[in-house]
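Pilot study result, target chain (924 residues):
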Amino acid sequence: MLEERDGELGAAQRALATALSGRGQLIVAEGGIGAGKSALLAAVAGVGAAAGMQVSRAQATRLERDFGGAVLRALLYPLVTAVPAANAAGWLAGAASAAAPLFGDDPSVLAAVSRLRYDPDVGYGLRLLVRRICAQRPLLLVVDDLQRADLLSLAFLADLVACREEMPVAVAVAVQYETSAVEAEPVDEIVQAADVVLRPAPLSERAVADILRAAGRDPAEAPGLHRASRGNPLVLRSLVGTGGHPSGCPSPLRERLVQAFDALADEVRAYARALVLLPSGAGPATVAAVAGLDEVQSRFARRRLDRLGLLRAGLRGYAQVVVEDAMSPAELDEFHRRAAEALDAAGHPIDEVADECMAVSGAPPACAARVLPAAGRAALRAHDPRRAVRYLRRALIDCTDDGAERARLLARLAEAELRTDPVAAIRHVGRAARLMPDVRSRAAILSRLTPIALTGADDLFGLIDAAARALPATRESLPVDRELALRLEARRRFRDLDDGDALRDTLGRWAGYGALPPLDTEAERELVAVLLYAATLTVRTSGAQVAGLACRLLEQLPYRPLLAHTPAPLAVACALAAGETTDVADWLSTALLPGGRRPPDDVLLALIGRATLHWLRGNLAECRRDLLRATRLARGAGATLDPTGAIGLVSTALKVGDRRILDRVAEVWPDPTTATRPHLRLLAQTLRAALALDRGPTSTEWDDWEQCLAELERLGWRNPALLPVGSWSARALVTAGRSRRARQLMEREYDRATWWGCPIPIGRSLRILGRLTEGPAGVELLAQSVDVLTDAGNDAELARTLVEYGVRLRAAGRPDAPERLVRGMRLARRAGADRVADRAAALLGEPGRAGSPLTAAELKVARLSAGGSSNRQIAELLGVTRRAVEKNLTNCYRKLGVPGRAMLAGKLAELFPAVEPADDEALG
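Predicted structure:
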């Protein structure tokens, strides 16, 4: 711990040389706690010993403060006893005999001497003794922690320092100002006479690196440890000894801090407590108010603490641990109560005041009832719901009112819990509503939970229905009553999506709105979003009408946190079902802007929406990437799926057909019996059937599937863009020998897709019907599918149809079959549909994977890289490390003889030649 102390050691060495010449010297090392004074003093002692001086060392302690002469005895007794008895007797002869009792072994004599005050005879005897010792050899006396020495020893040292120039003696002391003003006076008398003052500076980052290197640690840790210790040697030693991550305050730092705090005067200790326990931004006036000191006392205390180093960042945090441990629970309670009031009066940030209120375990401060709810609202605005929940729960504990005030707190708590514990939020909204004395207040609280958030909250709908009956939305209603009535209606209508009869009533309400429903207020937007979603599920309105209204809704629903509890997910789902991509892409790009804090549920919904958007645009690589991110988020970050998000996730994953993604979705949502809604059970059963295709579903699984289909028909949920049950199950049905059932479902799906009017569901239905239909009729259906999908903008779906069409044309001996296959293969490559592309390549007689110099993994990585995907995106898509991607790409470059990514696409096209189309238009 002597890094960067060369200057101090040089000054001490020069002082010792002066002492050796016969003119005594006083060397003082001063500084705060842990500044390295003791290590420096030990080094000075070593320099003196190397120069031939007699060295005697003493450590002053507060325990021996009442034992007069303890330090001087520790300094001189070893010297007296180290020489022959005759020599010692000569040293203590004559006038020096007055000091002889200090060096005897009789306890009674020592006790009597320790009670004597310092007198001239003793002082003269001690000076004479030191002269006689120095006559034999120059002397160096070293005293650590001089401020803790007893008064007799301090008087001896002061006397010795006063006449030091007459003898070859050096006195080296280390001092730390931790005592009261009265106790410090004799210490100051000595220090002020210093010939050399050593003030060790904080260590630099380079010194920290050298210390780490010497300890066998990585020097790269130096910046972090330097910031944590602020260059304080003692703190640094503690951090290095605990691996850089101490819990609490490690030894020996704790011991030094405890000793320092014990030695402080009462007013300085009170100021120190306030200083280290209050937030770092607390001003001197606030600290003084909490400590109960006036301005003069505060200035004195601050100077003392500054000299101790406790005002510096390196020690302050550790001092806080020591101070809290030393205070009783009652003292801590009283301190935090005073701190809350003082910080509140001084206008400190609301969260700092709230934290002090939270720290009080007994009766709350007077400001707590106002501060905690306000801090909860501020935490929500800062997107920190967990902190908001803490504040509001404590406010509820302290609340003595069992009426409207408790209800308002419960409602605010529910608002925060929507992001952390939706089940608790629903429970607290119900409790709050029941506490409210009037129907308008109950309706306002029930409206805090949006329609989506109320999924599964069946026990609240009795309250919602009663409030809705009491607040009809008539023309004569007050604006506030009408707004509340519309909000309640939106929640009831969303609940009724699972009730066939009630859903028909909802569709009648939708029909009464006309083409341009009002969207001026938030309540109107909520209700229209629910009605539009109901019309979308049941195909009661065409896709074109839904797309226009959904985009109007999104224009008035800018992204805000807690997306899952706004009407926006319903509008996004409707727009995507209608094939609208441009406006939805703009909206989702705002919801996923980098840099902002987004709740996990928001990111999850936005990722699912963007994955569906990529699928609509035929970009399967990006679609898979977002689906994988969504499943990881749902599994690892505590994000939860609402009904619209669940439909989007499972529907898009099944349309992509990637087994790995389906497995991930199944991990997120493994058990169909846990689903509370019919459509959720259907999705779970469909997912199970899709995953069972390789082994074939059991008869029980088919029975469950048919039951879900029947329930879905009973409800009227028929939109093939959201729930294309025929497309999902056709392959499994054919594999199970149920082709007639597959055709029946697909014909029904085609009719509904035609009514919906969006090209992708129509083209997909035509393709699957074409595969199920033999002969020229099937070929004609595939040709119609190509025509429909050509302008739909989905390369993946068009590629599938073109390859299927080419297969049928080839079987019929048609000469234009290769052209269709080539076009489908190229579109599939561009879309990331590798299996479709590989099938077409095999049919065209390309070498494919078997004839390629590349392995299957290398070929897949090469194609993704040539398509523009980055290494990170490829790694996420394939579920491997980035290093594995880089290794495969390096092998590709070597095997194909290309220098890098820029020439990879051309080399792959050269390796897999294809039949060129008749003209550029054929490429689509």
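One observation from the pilot: DSSP finds 47 helices and five strands in the chain. A full batch analysis is planned for the follow-on phase.
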